């Protein structure tokens, strides 16, 4: 895909503070997580460079992009924006780590397996922060094969700082290294 193609992809907007779960399709797709205009990422010793997404005449700072191969509704809303899900949501784990929340074992029967989450109070505070500070831009996809290609191109084009695994951009490299340390 070319940069112009990525720029011209049409996404819909969801404000998790106002919109209901039913606003998201129960189908596969891509999504972009951005800061509301007055919001900022939690401060750490390195500030990331943020690219912007243009939507209806406004610009929003992009922090993360992802995919759902099954259901945007379940992945985005139920795993990212509500509940005690930092153990299964990279976005939640990264944001909670930036906020300095302490990680605790996720599996009481096997606490040394390395799987972690945050305390119930921290998970609640994280959910509230996300609802107040983030927007979700999403697009349903009929071809599941396109989802991964679009995600790759979104990461290459927008360089979202919370995308660690497949983001090879040298801009924000130091921030991503710090984020990896904070997530451990």
Strand order of the largest sheet: 1-7-2-4-3
- What is the count of DSSP helices, taking H or I runs of 4+ residues? 6
**Proportion of residues in extended strands:** 15-25%
Helix fraction bin: 25-40%
Identify low-pLDDT runs: none
- Total strands: the figure is 7
What is the alpha-carbon Rg in Å?
Answer: 16 Å
Order of helices and strands: HEEEEHHEEHEHH
Largest sheet: 5 strands, antiparallel
Feature tags:
184 residues; alpha+beta; 5-stranded antiparallel β-sheet; two-stranded antiparallel ribbon; 21% strand
What does this 3D model show about the protein?
The structure is a single chain. Helix 3 packs across helix 6. By secondary structure, this protein is of the alpha+beta class. It starts with a helix and ends with a helix.
Quick synopsis:
The protein is built from 6 helices and 7 strands; from the N terminus they run αββββααββαβαα. It is α+β, with helices and mostly antiparallel strands and 184 residues long.
Give the helices and strands, then pairings:
Layout: H1 3-7, E1 12-14, E2 29-35, E3 52-55, E4 58-68, H2 72-81, H3 90-98, E5 103-105, E6 116-118, H4 120-133, E7 134-140, H5 144-158, H6 173-183
Antiparallel strand pairs: 1-7, 2-4, 2-7, 3-4, 5-6
């Amino acid at each position: 895909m070319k940069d112009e193609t990525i720029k011209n992809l049409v996404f819909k907007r969801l404000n998790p503070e106002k919109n209901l779960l039913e606003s998201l399709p129960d189908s596969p797709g891509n999504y972009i997580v951005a800061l509301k205009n007055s919001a900022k990422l939690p401060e750490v010793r390195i500030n990331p460079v943020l690219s912007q997404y243009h939507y209806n005449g406004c610009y929003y700072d992009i922090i993360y992009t992802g995919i759902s191969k099954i259901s945007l509704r379940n992945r985005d809303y139920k795993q990212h924006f509500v509940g005690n899900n930092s153990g299964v949501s990279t976005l939640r784990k990264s944001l909670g780590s930036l906020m300095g929340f302490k990680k605790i074992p996720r599996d009481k029967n096997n606490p040394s397996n390395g799987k972690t989450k945050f305390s119930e109070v921290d998970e609640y505070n994280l959910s509230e922060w996300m609802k107040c500070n983030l927007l979700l831009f999403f697009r349903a996809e009929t071809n599941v094969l396109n989802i991964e290609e679009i995600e790759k191109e979104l990461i290459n084009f927008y360089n979202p700082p919370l995308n660690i695994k497949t983001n090879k951009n040298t801009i924000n490299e130091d921030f991503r290294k710090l984020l990896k340390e904070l997530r451990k």
